Amino acid sequence: MRIAQMDYIYVLLILLPLLLVFYWLAFRMKRRALKRFGNLDLMDKLALSFSPKKQRWKVALLLLAIFFLLFSLAQPQLGTKLTLMKREGVDIVIALDCSLSMMAEDFKPSRLEKAKQEVNGLISRMRGDRVGLVAFAGVAFIQCPLTLDYSAAGMFLDIMDVNLIPQPGTAIGDAIRTSIGAFNQKERKYKVLILLTDGEDHDSDPLGAAEEAASEGIKIYTIGIGSVQGEPIPLKSKRGEVTGYKKDNEGNVVVSRLDETTLQKVALTTGGKYYHATSGEMELDKIYDQISKMERKELEGKLMTLYEDRYQVFLFLSIVCLVVEFLLSERRSKKMVERLKSEAKTK
After folding, report:
1. Sheet containing 297-309: which strands, arranged edge to edge?
2. What digits encode the pLDDT tens for the residues 40-56?
3. The pTM is what?
4. Domain map of the chain by residue range?
5. What sign does the CA torsion over 148, 150, 155, 158 have?
6. Rg (CA), the chain
7. What is the DSSP letter of 128?
8. Fewer C-beta neighbours within 10 Å, C or N terminus of the chain?
9. What separation in angstroms does the CA of 334 have from each of 49, 55, 339?
10. Short-list 71, 80, 81, CA closest to 311
11. Span 196-236, pLDDT tens digits
12. From the centroid of its chain, how far is CA 134?
């Protein structure tokens, strides 16, 4: 037999002995209290209608009911069966900007950390969808191929930072083209690309890449990370201390601004939508709500061993014990009382 919820067994092992001790002490204290009033044999004769034996039976039935109830809550399982669990979902590739501009701090602690929070939020909302990761800066590459293993995707996400890609820049077009390659090329639906970036593209033709994605049946949702007003890009030491800000060739501080226009055009080209990142992550609910309405495909099935629940038997026994305890009276029958009275007179 297998126990699914062991916590209830621990409760049972603690509670049942405590109840036994409690009732034992209660009966003992009751006998002592009766002794103070007079002779116990005399007290028993005066209370012939009361049955101590039935009282003990009621306590035993109550304890059994508690035992069976807690045991049923522990979900005892006996017997197994093999079942093919089918999954339905879509393929979702998440492209994350890892360029130096993502170190700007208009989102705390940085744009990149905010973007990673958004990705984690997206993965946590997935139910049966495959997910893949693409990292990009001046170039793009597949960080994690499409998988149903969300914990593995989370591990690949954790190691993504601005030092992952040595080539500087923000090649949104390359990110889209690399993401196209991550999908099944034989399909023309069930495909979603979620692009998280500040939108400052460096001549990679993102709109042309979006048209290519649309022809492959890929719907792109873009999430803008940053502010339109812009923010300087801090340069940090190995200890995380700000040592200065990025400057251009003329010595001016570079201000990184969110390019919402490009991101809106990319999304609209494929029938998707643009969202600006918010602290409450409301955009994630909106995106996944739209994804959940898409036509879904059957993904790989998984053969699983399911255990047969047997809690119903113990729940039934608990109910029977409670019903019998309720119906059982502590008073003796009239015939028994009359017999005891006649025996008392003969003595």
Report:
1. 2-3, 76-89, 297-309
2. 555 555 555 667 778 88
3. 0.63
4. 2-80+308-346, 91-295
5. positive
6. 36
7. S
8. C
9. 8, 17, 9
10. 71
11. 999 888 788 999 999 999 999 999 999 999 898 989 988 88
12. 25
